[in-house]
Amino acid sequence: MENQQKRKKKEEESEINELLFSIMEGYSDKVVAPLSQFSTPLMEEAAAVVEAKGCSSRKPGGRLKEAEEVTESLKKERDRRGKMAESYDLLLSMVPNLFPKATRENIVGETITYIQFLEKEITRLEELKNSSESSKMAEGKMHHFSNRNSSINVTVSNSIVFFGIQSLIRPCLVTDIFMVFHKHKAEVLAANVAADQRQLTVAVTATVVNGNIDSTIEKIKRDILIL
Fold this sequence. Notes:
Elements: H1 2-24, H2 40-53, H3 62-94, H4 104-133, E1 142-146, E2 150-157, E3 160-168, H5 173-183, E4 187-195, E5 199-207, H6 213-225
Antiparallel strand pairs: 1-2, 2-3, 3-5, 4-5
Helix pairs in contact: 2-3
């Protein structure tokens, strides 16, 4: 009984080898490695096909169907390897600091490093964009702010800011306006004051050296409007 089982197993192995060699005979596609280099899982898969079919190879058309199944399996393996090779070639062409003959391990490592660098660069650019958009005081453009008693026109040129202030006249108003500039450490370069019976007009040229210029302008404007 044991000798019969061994003989049957040898016959199955012989059939598998004959089948594979008949399929690969004359095959020249360099994407698929030589038959002798096929992985063990692929050979086991072919053996499983034969075992599942039993003696189907001895039936009419059984050997042809078996050959088609194994051929399809080999084709899938070839396609998988081809796609993987294309993916590595694509990474090799896109990722910097890679030599033409870099190993797959090096390609994967450098790709991870490059992705991390790109993520940091995206974060930096987004922060820069948000900072630029938050600057409401566009250079050279006049901005108007007002409430019931006062109005302010603001024009920014680099660190120089021009304030045109109009307000209902009241005692100590001019002093209070200049105290606002002093409070926020804005240096007054020039000022002009004009008044009639009811309205006070103050033109101030100031510079903001320290801190965020937009934030400082916003604070000065807010404090003057509530005087």
